[in-house]
């Protein structure tokens, strides 16, 4: 498990569980919060039915938007980034850089550590720019995978993936490092033999 974070001190909460509706236009992102040391991280603050679906659970943790130090964007599709502006003080991480205020700092996401328990890896599949945040917790490694998996039941073959072979390789890489998967539009599920490949 060389991709797994070195530390195991992170804690996470799913702020809102996303969905995709097969019979209509509704879509919402799964938005998560991770903390480790002095880092307060929101992952994929995308489309939700109302901003209170993100800010309300954060307030329940005793946090406001100004307390968030970092935002991780798994990829740049609007349904996963729509509410990034709620966190104006945060460093924003994507596949190629860190953005804050008027500063743009180039860096490859591959292997970048926010802390010893929080590591980014490149996982192209749903898009060429996909990244995954691996969080080392006391219970195991939690992978925030964006739309590498949309939800616990797949889809097995992503209909928008530009390269299905690469998509599968990225899924296998994550499964080798993680115990739990947090998908882009559904509830967390085990990173085991039942995970769609």
From TrEMBL:
Catalytic activity from the UniProt record: a ribonucleotidyl-ribonucleotide-RNA + H2O = a 3'-end ribonucleotide-RNA + a 5'-end 5'-phospho-ribonucleoside-RNA + H(+)
Gene3D superfamilies assigned to the protein according to its UniProt record, in alphabetical order: Ribonuclease Z/Hydroxyacylglutathione hydrolase-like (3.60.15.10)
Principal location listed in the UniProt entry: cytoplasm
Domain Metallo-beta-lactamase per the UniProt entry, residue ranges: 28-185
SUPFAM superfamilies: Metallo-hydrolase/oxidoreductase (SSF56281)
Localization, UniProt: Cytoplasm, Cytosol
A Pfam family: Lactamase_B
GO cellular component: cytosol
InterPro entries: MBLAC1, Metallo-B-lactamas, RibonucZ/Hydroxyglut_hydro
Role this protein plays: Endoribonuclease that catalyzes the hydrolysis of histone-coding pre-mRNA 3'-end. Involved in histone pre-mRNA processing during the S-phase of the cell cycle, which is required for entering/progressing through S-phase. Cleaves histone pre-mRNA at a major and a minor cleavage site after the 5'-ACCCA-3' and the 5'-ACCCACA-3' sequence, respectively, and located downstream of the stem-loop. May require the presence of the HDE element located at the histone pre-RNA 3'-end to avoid non-specific cleavage.
Subunit structure of this chain's protein: Homodimer.
PANTHER family for this protein: METALLO-BETA-LACTAMASE DOMAIN-CONTAINING PROTEIN 1
Protein name as it appears in the record: Metallo-beta-lactamase domain-containing protein 1
């Amino acid at each position: 498990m060389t991709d797994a974070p070195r530390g195991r001190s992170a804690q996470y909460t799913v702020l809102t569980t996303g969905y995709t509706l097969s019979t209509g236009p509704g879509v919402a992102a799964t938005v998560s919060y991770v903390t480790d040391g002095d880092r307060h991280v929101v992952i994929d603050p995308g489309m939700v039915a109302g901003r209170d679906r993100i800010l309300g659970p954060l307030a329940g943790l005793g946090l406001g938007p100004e307390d968030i130090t970092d935002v991780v964007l798994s990829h740049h599709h609007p349904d996963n980034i729509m509410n990034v502006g709620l966190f104006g003080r945060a460093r924003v991480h994507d596949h190629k850089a860190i953005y804050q205020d008027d500063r743009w700092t180039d860096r490859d996401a591959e292997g970048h550590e926010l802390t010893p328990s929080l590591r980014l890896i490149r996982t192209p599949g749903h898009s060429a720019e996909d990244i995954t945040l691996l969080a080392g917790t006391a219970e195991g490694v939690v992978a925030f995978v964006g739309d590498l998996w949309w939800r616990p039941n797949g889809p097995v073959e992503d209909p928008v993936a530009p390269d299905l072979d690469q998509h599968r390789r990225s899924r296998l890489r994550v499964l080798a490092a993680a115990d739990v998967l947090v998908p882009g539009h559904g509830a967390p599920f085990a990173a085991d033999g039942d995970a769609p490949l």
